[in-house]
Design brief:
Mean pLDDT: 87
Number of strands: 9
Radius of gyration: 18 Å
Strand content: 35-45%
Number of helices: 2
Length: 183
């Protein structure tokens, strides 16, 4: 998407017309210079909006015309891990930042590199955080690949919905902060 740079306001994900069973992945490289550091990821200012109510939605949501609460945040699952070989495939031994696939609604502050994970961002190296998302049920296969299976007719409940969030990466030098915790 873009090369190494100081992050300001970047778009990491933008998906239009997400349908049941859709999936994707992204590998994000993190670079620190001169000092070892800890790093955190926070999902902030989430908005899950209904954006109208289709006929298919009405059969699953009687009140979808009167509320503006969407269902994407509970129907899209995400898995995040320390992807050492940055191949967007979960390999045995790679650290899971989310212990299992999580609904978007459950993503808050994630300890990437801190005293809780015992991982650090080493000076003058590159680390990788991979994400895999699924509009449906997400499972991790034994070989590290992923399977995304739609939820069937129930997936109609998020037609026309939208979900947005700010992803905030935070880095703190490790020196003098050995017990730093993202939480």
């Amino acid at each position: 998407l873009f090369g190494a740079k100081n992050l300001e306001k970047e778009t990491f994900f933008k998906f239009n017309d997400v349908k049941p069973g859709d999936f994707g992945s992204n590998v994000i490289s993190l670079h620190v210079y001169n000092n070892e550091a800890f790093g955190c990821l926070t999902f902030d200012q989430k908005a899950d909006l209904e954006n109208g109510c289709s006929e298919a939605e009405k059969s699953y949501e009687a009140n979808c015309e009167t509320d503006d609460k969407g269902e994407l945040d509970s129907n899209i699952k995400m898995f995040i891990w320390n992807d050492k070989d940055h191949d967007a495939k979960y390999d045995a031994g790679e650290y899971k930042f989310t212990s299992s696939p999580m609904a978007l609604s459950d993503l808050k502050t994630i300890s990437l590199f801190d005293s809780n994970t015992a991982l650090i961002l080493a000076a003058n190296t590159t680390d990788y955080v991979s994400t895999y998302w699924c509009a449906g049920n997400l499972t991790i296969n034994e070989d590290g690949s992923f399977a995304c299976v739609e939820n069937g007719e129930a997936d109609n409940q998020y037609q026309s919905d939208s979900w947005t969030a700010d992803l905030i990466f935070n880095a703190v030098q490790k020196r003098h902060n050995e017990t730093y915790s993202c939480t």
